[in-house]
Design brief:
single chain, mainly alpha, 2 helices, about 75% helix, ion transport, hydrogen ion transport, proton transmembrane transporter activity, mitochondrion inner membrane
Length: about 100
Amino acid sequence: MSSSVRQVSSLYKIGRWVALAGGLSYGYVHARTLRKEADVKRLDKEYARKVALIEEAKKKYAESKASPSTGAESFNFEDPNFDFDKWAKHLETKFN
């Protein structure tokens, strides 16, 4: 029995190395692209969360400012029909 070793073409060997290098390059570039997209999505989500928190804070601030002023009255001292007694009662209830 004679064993003969089959010779592999140089073109075939080079082709395998080129395919390996191409696959590694593609994998690196694709992973980098996916990482960038994930970072952009994360930043967008964080920005949207901050905007939602700001909107919620604005609503609560508006509610806190609106609540005490609903019972309060505004008085115009230059109005000819100004009611001094009403203003005095308002001050009395405010400071007591």
